[in-house]
Design brief:
Blueprint lengths: L8 E6 L5 H15 L11 E7 L2 E15 L2 E13 L8 H15 L5 E6 L4 H5 L4 E2 L4 E5 L2 E4 L3 E6 L10 E2 L6
Parallel strand pairs: 4-5, 7-10
Antiparallel strand pairs: 1-2, 2-3, 3-4, 3-10, 5-9, 6-9, 7-8
Bound molecules: coenzyme A.
Length: 175
């Protein structure tokens, strides 16, 4: 049963502290939600998870990465696989997960920039939370070589920090 008054709990957890079963559940959920995408993805080091009692109802992965922005090295938290369970959507879970993910980027990774890759249809969700579209191409590594991301790249900057609007090299696998 879900409603605007639904109560849910948010937990930030290192991937090393996940049970094998929970890790498999998170990977499966990512594949079920986004379908088969023929790319090799980076594994998150951290997860922000939403629960209703013991039921997993939301997830975000966080990747610790040093990227290159116009050849300048910048440490960022990469946000991956933002999902609220279908029947729980529009209850503020996505917003709360993203707020906790930004907090984890600051507190656990000790960095002040976030970066995510997304489809145009969802960019409005992130824009409402202060994320900005980067206007330049984003490249990343795949086993067959470098590729350019075909959709949007969005970045988040902590108060007082400025993320350059310039070409980005993820310096590894995408998320
Ligand atoms: C995107 C998603 C995580 C949002 O989660 P949610 O729990 O439904 O979002 P919230 O209830 O916290 O919504 C927060 C705000 O964003 C808005 N919003 C939600 N989805 C939106 C979208 N696709 N586009 C624009 N705004 C959106 C809500 O209306 C709400 O606005 P308000 O604060 O003015 O009331 C969820 O719809 C989802 O899991 N989608 C499928 C997976 C997906 O596409 N993830 C993104 C991958 S890049």
């Amino acid at each position: 049963m879900t409603s605007a008054n639904s109560v849910f709990q948010i937990k930030t957890i290192h991937e090393k502290d996940l049970t094998g079963q929970k890790r498999d559940q998170l990977v499966q959920w990512f594949e079920d939600e986004f379908g088969y995408i023929p790319l090799k993805w980076a594994e998150p080091q951290w997860y922000v998870l939403a629960f209703n009692d013991s039921e997993l109802i939301g997830r975000v992965g966080i990747i610790d990465r040093l990227i290159l922005v116009a050849d300048q090295q910048i440490c960022i938290g990469g946000i991956s696989g933002v999902i609220a369970k279908n029947e729980w959507r529009n209850n503020g879970i996505g917003k709360k997960l993203m707020a906790e993910a930004v907090k984890a980027i600051k507190d656990k990774l000790n960095v002040c920039f976030g970066l995510l890759l997304c489809r145009k249809e969802v960019s409005g969700f992130y824009e409402k939370l202060g994320w900005k579209v980067n206007d330049f191409p984003t490249t990343f590594e795949q086993p067959q070589g470098k590729m350019v991301f075909p959709n949007l790249t969005m970045t988040y900057s902590c108060e007082g920090a400025f993320f350059p609007n310039a070409p980005i090299d993820l310096n590894g696998l995408p998320w």
